[in-house]
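Hi F.,

I've been meaning to write this up properly since the lab meeting, where we talked about keeping a consistent format for the predictions we share between groups. The idea is simple: the sequence comes first, exactly as it goes in, then the structure tokens exactly as they come out, then a line or two of notes. No screenshots and no reformatting. I'm using this chain as the first example so we have something concrete to point to.
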Amino acid sequence: MGMTLTKLSAAALAAAAVLAGCSASRPAAGSSPGVSMGSTSVTAPAAPATGNQVNIDGFAFAPATLTVTAGTTVTWTNRDEEPHTVAASDGSFHSPGMGTGATFTHTFTDPGTFDYVCSIHPMMHGTVVVTR
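Output, unedited:
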């Protein structure tokens, strides 16, 4: 029994050495051991909506808040497959139903804060802030 235990121990030790050798990491081709090449990740920023554009996409107005100066014409573009409207809470403007690709424009002549919704989907909210 003593000899069998010795052989088993030797076999286990040899297996452990082989496994340890298999898991040793080697530097990738073209790199030097001990030298970190680092990593770089470049992410392009999301394209901001232009100064007078609001997109309707994913049942949301984007940007949700737009700041413009008095006299600016704002254009809303429906990019959803569902129809939407743009309706000011104070009644100062209201688009007809807009299908995919349709646009609606409104010129803001006076400073103020103008909240609006989609009258078909009232959970959709947006705001235009008009400055001097």
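Notes:
The first strand starts at residue 53 and ends at 56.
The chain is about 15% helix and 30% strand.

If this format works for you, I'll send the rest the same way.

G.
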